[in-house]
């Protein structure tokens, strides 16, 4: 239990953290990785280099300062981050390391403004926040391990099938090497995969949505090849496309994630995806089509052209109103009438194709895509609480 004085000090630092948050988190990662380079085997180095991880952490630290006396308000964020932590193998012993270097970074960036009183207050507050994360994540580890067919950390699965879905997207069907089944999951969840890439010093962990309905036999992940394998974001996707073949093994976490389909809702369902963001929505669509056959469903997908469109036939075979938007359709697309709209999805077009606006909306895709869709949905009168979404990588703000 934090004292009133500690709460007062922490809350008073919130404006400072809002202003200098990214400077602090950037310095934090520099200090921590210098002292503990082994943690580079866990943390996503791509998100470090692009700055997204620093931004996400800064947002979380700021929220913790604002709601330090009402931590129940940030429990949803704690759970969302907890899923990611559990899937990559963050353990209780990592939290003291994080706390030590976060305080060092605050002191380093704020200089004399970070008085001993402020540092002491934040040390106390961090202990309470860390305990909340550890408690939530412990429950998640136990749940993952105790599920039928489940496991705690990483398990070796082999590539039973490798299927090209488009010019840049490939699916990998993963089964346990020991012949056992795999645990069930909720439509929309993801798994982490851990790979050792030749020539790279540290292991790489990435999250990929499960793109099929649960079946107890295999997981299907669907991966887009990034254009440049020399860029940080292309390292794992190009490795999977170019070097991982059928019969090879990959270390896989148990499923995780809170971006899941609400199967208790009877409202119309609207799924909107951009590019490889189709992956979690395919799982949602397949499960809803099977278990809620009377539910009104609309599936809207945007891609560059037919060459980049994954799961076209598979999605079309399910009972949903399907609309396709191609940014730059090819001559073949035009001849075959493979799409409903050319260019980008707009509010005016959504107004026409979504019959009942009082629906549950799920969307996934690149950040710029989701910002545009989020704004368009609000323009046509969709309530904020009806819009559910997931980012590629650390949680950001729309």
UniProtKB/TrEMBL annotation:
Obligatory cofactor(s): heme b; FAD
Region (Reductase): 149-398
Reactions catalysed according to its record: 2 nitric oxide + NADH + 2 O2 = 2 nitrate + NAD(+) + H(+); 2 nitric oxide + NADPH + 2 O2 = 2 nitrate + NADP(+) + H(+)
Annotated site location: Involved in heme-bound ligand stabilization and O-O bond activation: 29
Residue ranges of every copy of the FAD-binding FR-type domain listed in the record: 152-262
One GO MF term: nitric oxide dioxygenase NAD(P)H activity
Site (Influences the redox potential of the prosthetic heme and FAD groups): 84, 390
HAMAP family linked: Hmp
Protein name (record): Flavohemoprotein
Active-site residues annotated for this sequence: 95, 137
Function: Is involved in NO detoxification in an aerobic process, termed nitric oxide dioxygenase (NOD) reaction that utilizes O(2) and NAD(P)H to convert NO to nitrate, which protects the bacterium from various noxious nitrogen compounds. Therefore, plays a central role in the inducible response to nitrosative stress.
Alphabetical list of InterPro entries matching this protein: Cbr1-like_FAD-bd_dom (IPR008333), FAD-bd_FR_type (IPR017927), Flavoprot_Pyr_Nucl_cyt_Rdtase (IPR001709), FNR_nucleotide-bd (IPR039261), Globin (IPR000971), Globin-like_sf (IPR009050), Globin/Proto (IPR012292), Hmp (IPR023950)
Cofactor note: Binds 1 heme b (iron(II)-protoporphyrin IX) group per subunit.
Statement: the UniProt record of this protein carries the keyword Thylakoid: no
Globin domain segment(s): 1-138
One Pfam family cited in the UniProt record for this chain: FAD_binding_6
Protein's organism: Bacillus songklensis
């Amino acid at each position: 239990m934090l004292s009133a004085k500690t709460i007062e000090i922490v809350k008073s630092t919130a404006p400072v953290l809002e202003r200098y948050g990214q400077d602090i988190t950037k310095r934090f990662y520099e200090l921590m990785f210098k002292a503990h380079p082994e943690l580079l085997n866990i943390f996503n180095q791509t998100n470090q280099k692009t700055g997204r991880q620093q931004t996400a952490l800064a947002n979380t630290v700021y929220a913790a300062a604002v709601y330090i006396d009402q931590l129940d308000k940030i429990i949803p964020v704690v759970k969302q981050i907890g899923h990611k932590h559990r899937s990559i193998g963050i353990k209780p012993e990592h939290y003291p390391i994080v706390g030590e270097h976060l305080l060092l970074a605050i002191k380093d960036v704020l200089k004399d403004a970070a008085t001993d009183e402020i540092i002491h207050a934040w040390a106390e507050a961090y202990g309470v926040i860390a305990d909340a994360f550890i408690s939530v994540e412990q429950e998640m580890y136990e749940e993952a391990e105790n599920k039928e067919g489940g496991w705690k950390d990483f398990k070796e699965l082999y590539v039973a099938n490798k299927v090209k879905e488009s010019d840049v997207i490939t699916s990998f069907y993963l089964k346990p090497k020991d012949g056992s089944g795999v645990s069930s999951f909720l439509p929309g969840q993801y798994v982490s995969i851990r790979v050792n890439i030749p020539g790279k010093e540290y292991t790489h962990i990435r999250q990929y949505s499960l793109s099929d309905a649960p079946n107890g036999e295999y997981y299907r992940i669907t991966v887009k090849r990034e254009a440049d394998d020399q860029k940080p974001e292309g390292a794992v996707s190009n490795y999977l496309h170019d070097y991982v073949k059928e019969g090879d093994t990959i270390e896989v976490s148990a499923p995780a994630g809170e971006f899941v389909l609400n199967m208790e809702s009877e409202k119309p369902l609207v799924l909107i995806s951009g590019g490889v963001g189709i992956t979690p929505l395919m799982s949602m669509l397949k499960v809803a089509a099977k278990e809620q056959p009377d539910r009104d469903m609309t599936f809207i997908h945007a891609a560059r052209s037919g060459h980049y469109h994954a799961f076209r036939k598979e999605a079309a075979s399910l009972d949903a109103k399907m609309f396709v938007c191609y940014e730059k359709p090819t001559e073949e697309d035009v001849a075959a009438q493979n799409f409903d709209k050319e260019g980008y999805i707009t509010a005016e077009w959504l107004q026409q194709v979504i019959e009942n606006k009082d629906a549950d909306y799920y969307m996934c895709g690149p950040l710029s895509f989701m910002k545009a869709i989020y704004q368009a949905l609000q323009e046509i009168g969709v309530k904020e609480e009806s819009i559910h979404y997931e980012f590629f990588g650390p949680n950001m703000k729309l």
